[in-house]
Amino acid sequence: MRQPVLEIRNLDVGYGLGDVALRAVRDVSLTLHRGEVLGLAGESGSGKSTLAYGVTRLLPPPGVITGGEVVYHPENGSPYDVLALGDRELRAFRWAETAIVFQGAMNSLNPVHRISVQLTDVIAAHQPDLSARARAERAREMLRLVGIAADRMDAYPHQLSGGMRQRVMIGMALALQPQIVIMDEPTTALDVVMQRQILRQLVALRERLGFSVIFITHDLSLLVEFADRIAIMYGGRIVEEAPASALYRDALHPYTAGLLGSFPALRGPRRDLTGIPGSPPDLTSMPTGCSFHPRCPKAFEPCPVTIPPLGSPDTPGGSTRTVACLLHPATNPEVR
Amino acid sequence: MTPSTSAVAPVSEVVLDAAGLTKHFPVRRRLRDLLSRHAGAVHAVDDVNLTLRRGQVVALVGESGSGKSTVARLLAQLHPRTGGEIRLNGEAVTVRGGRRFRAYAKRVQMIFQDPFASLNPVHSVRYHLTRSLRIHGRAGEGKDGLDQALTALLSQVQLTPAERYIDKFPHELSGGQRQRVAIARALGAGPEVLLADEPVSMLDVSIRLGVLNLLRDLKDRLDLAILYITHDIASARYFADETLVMYAGRLVEGGDSETVTQRPAHPYTQLLIDSAPDPDRVAGAVAAEVADRGDGEPPSLIRPPEGCRFHPRCPHAMARCTTDLPIPLPVGDRDGHWAACWLYGEPSAEGVAP
Asked: Which chain B residues in 242-271 lie under 8 Å from chain A, judged by CB atoms?
């Protein structure tokens, strides 16, 4: 087993406190290993972005982390809980250890500053001893890394295309060589051709620099091809987690199966597809028991009552995966 | 319902037909342009021919900025066009507004991408649908007639029981329900043609197919002609009988959906299909699969490339491609499959620039 780099244990994230609180992420445990691409898939409102922002403590109020811990394992040094960091330590941790490429990253560049200023800004904040020339050299290197000619350094964001802006964002995320890069829907605003180019580049960069990626998207078909492991979120919980190929070949949770069946195939026979009936749950009025049961084609009596625990199923190769479904009772409902 | 195969479907009646559709948007002149003779223009759509038939779905596939939404807006007569002709049931129509526009809109309706923006947040479902029915004179007699018409509309889009939805406001509905209301509003006019501009791309993945299946069901029951605009070529294969591929304002390939997606002829279509996510491709193969093909940037439409607009990115570009505009040429063994690409042209003498 590879070394873990980030362990999320029983994380609870909500919006608001008291009676009006909304539990967006419920009891999520997830481990990111060194050098791996972990895909996090789910529909809007499933809590996948909230999880990412909770882990990095970027959640704006009224978002609050109500429980759990996030243990970070630095490359050398002893592991520590990100949630317990003080302001100063947190500031040092951010971007140097984990970087985020935000949703709609194309619009997260400041339009009134040149690319060079924005790229060197990160470096200046974290390595104040570095000379201006060294910073500029570093920024140029980052641009080269993501395939943008260094002479675009002095361009303004509006002078770059959407794909180039996205690359700049990725370059910026890698500027301090973080261990973890969180990508929140990084390619949804891009065309498929550009999307594939950027993903290809990301794969190559990961091989070279050895960082781990948490890749958040609603496009499961993309993850199957691109991620090492995939975790599926629904209604704030992880309902299934498995190696990408195992998940695609043999989805255990009915929601995963439904999600996989929601993408028309480009090859093979043309099948009639149905998607999943109903709509995603409303976080203010979550169904009892398994939150998927009102939409589930395989729901049976205990589903509306019992919350299925996440555990390894009793199937061949079951030890490498977990699922939270009463159809696949866990052999060891452990907390991973 | 089974996926329809258009190749064997009988040729049905043409409802809406566009020939040589062209739209250039003027670009504001800057000081330094004053001396130059040419006024700049964005060549958003150039010479697009398409035909919508009763009971059939035509998909228009392309990247963002390829002009596919402009085509829909031209067909809906929301923009005046620069050139070309639009024929509704064989009759050339140009409307600028007023009564004639309403008469046109009664027969050609549009569905927009974002149901969060296309419904007015301060009005209820009842208001939206009533307005559509009233404007197009389909509200029936008295209050009972209206109620009946409203219930019928909502049940057509599978929002039943109607009472549960009729007095809701847009924010009380999910994305899929909102898009269904938008579809119901379009149906309120009793149209013959639906122009659906990315109708599902803003919706959650698990409910997209529900909306697409609904549109297909409506097409069959009401004998509608549908133009389905999308960037997702896999959904075009699933939903449409015929697929047209658009690049930088021009159509580059067309044919029945199965042929275009399984045996793409134009290098751009091939690139598009190779780039689409494909779970059957194993993880890790991403790097090797699509070798370098251009820089992935569509060209500027203010000064589009001479000749074929795809040639700067095309791996098969020849000298001829940089000078001559490719004409639609028949390809493959299936009728109606064509590509605007010189790879399929006769090596003719006049093609070579003197």
From this structure: 258, 261-262, 271
CB contact (8 A) between residue B297 and residue A276? no
Parent domain of B305 = 270-354
- What architecture (CATH level 2) is domain A1-97+180-264? 3-Layer(aba) Sandwich (3.40)
Give domain status of residue B310, yes or no: yes
Q: Which residue, among A207, A252, A208, A202, has the nearest Cα to A232 in the 3D structure? A: A252
pTM recorded for the entire structure:
0.85
In a domain, B166, yes or no: no
pLDDT digits (tens, 9 = 90+) for B62-74: 888 888 999 999 9
How many Cα atoms occupy the beta-carbon half-sphere of B30 within 13 Å? 1
**Is A133 touching B (CB cutoff 8 A)?**
no
Shortest CA gap A314–chain B (Å): 25
> ipTM of the predicted structure?
0.80
List the single residue in B176, B276, B279 with the smallest CB-CB distance to A279: B176
Domain count, chain B: 1
Q: What is the largest CA-CA distance in chain A?
A: 68
Domain-located, residue B296: yes
By CB neighbour count within 10 A (0-12 exposed, 13-18 middle, 19+ buried), where does B95 fall? middle
- Judged by a CB distance cut-off of 8 A, whether residue B199 touches chain A is no
